[in-house]
Design the sequence.
């Protein structure tokens, strides 16, 4: 019997193929940094994870505004919740990989410099958002209060990106986006970064689609159970 | 080298762990749906 291929499976296949390809590119083709050595390759995990973690909170805030404009459309809230959970997973990886890169590069696991501190603040905002949603579950107000937390988080994301410009910082400047220095990266290193970003983006989409399916089904189930009771 | 291995290893553990949690939750939800179907059938 032929089995239908779901969207999840397509994303899973895409993310697996691109992840294997990107690892091959990073460890075979992309050169090793002359100053920082092999530990610099943490960069290809750290930067895309941090970007996805920051983009995610902006998406959560945008979806929260859409929900607040029309509270009948529960799907915006379900999507916002899904993005927040997956965003937190990626930001956790960015913080851990950053710490593991900081030790050989700076000699310390952590330093309270602006970019790192603001990233940790964003991580706590994610935690606050998810914990508030969990504790207030069923009260009917969890989505509204969560939206406020998400909007605060969305203010923090651009501050993280521009932190090296706004304050004196030990953290290197941006290598991608509008604030990136030209020629900050070797051509092959830049290609490696893009390959890694594409691979992790597919994984991000795969997780969000799975989480959204779960969340929206739970919402519908709860609605049916309430009607039955 | 050990920092690089640790970073990628931890990332993969988190990815697989999260994937496992999601698949378990989906499995639990499918069971809840089955129970609900039985309940609706019995009620009707």
Sequence:
């Amino acid at each position: 019997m032929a089995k239908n291929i779901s969207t999840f499976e397509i994303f899973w296949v895409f993310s697996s193929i691109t992840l294997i390809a990107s690892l091959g590119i990073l460890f075979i083709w992309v050169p090793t940094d002359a100053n920082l050595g092999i530990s610099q390759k943490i960069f290809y995990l750290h930067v895309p994870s941090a970007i996805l973690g920051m983009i995610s909170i902006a998406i959560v805030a945008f979806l929260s505004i859409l929900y607040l404009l029309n509270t009948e459309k529960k799907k915006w809230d379900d999507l916002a919740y899904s993005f927040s959970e997956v965003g937190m997973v990626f930001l956790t990886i960015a913080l851990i990989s950053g710490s593991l890169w900081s030790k050989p590069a700076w000699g310390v696991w952590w330093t309270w410099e602006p970019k790192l501190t603001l990233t940790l603040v964003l991580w706590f905002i994610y935690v606050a958002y998810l914990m508030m949603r969990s504790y207030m579950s069923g009260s009917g107000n969890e989505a509204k209060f969560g939206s406020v937390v998400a909007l605060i988080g969305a203010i923090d994301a651009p501050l993280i990106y521009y932190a090296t410009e706004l304050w004196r910082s030990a953290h290197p400047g941006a290598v991608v986006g509008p604030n990136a220095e030209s020629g900050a990266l070797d051509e092959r290193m830049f290609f490696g970064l893009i390959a890694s970003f594409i691979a992790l983006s597919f994984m991000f989409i795969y997780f969000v689609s799975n989480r959204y399916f779960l969340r929206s089904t739970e919402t519908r189930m709860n609605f049916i159970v309430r009607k039955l009771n | 080298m050990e920092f690089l291995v640790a970073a990628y290893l931890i990332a993969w553990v988190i990815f697989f762990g999260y994937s496992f949690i999601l698949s378990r939750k989906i499995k639990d939800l499918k069971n809840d749906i089955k129970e609900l179907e039985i309940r609706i059938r019995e009620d009707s």
Summary: Chain B has a mean pLDDT of 88. Chain B is about 95% helix and 0% strand.
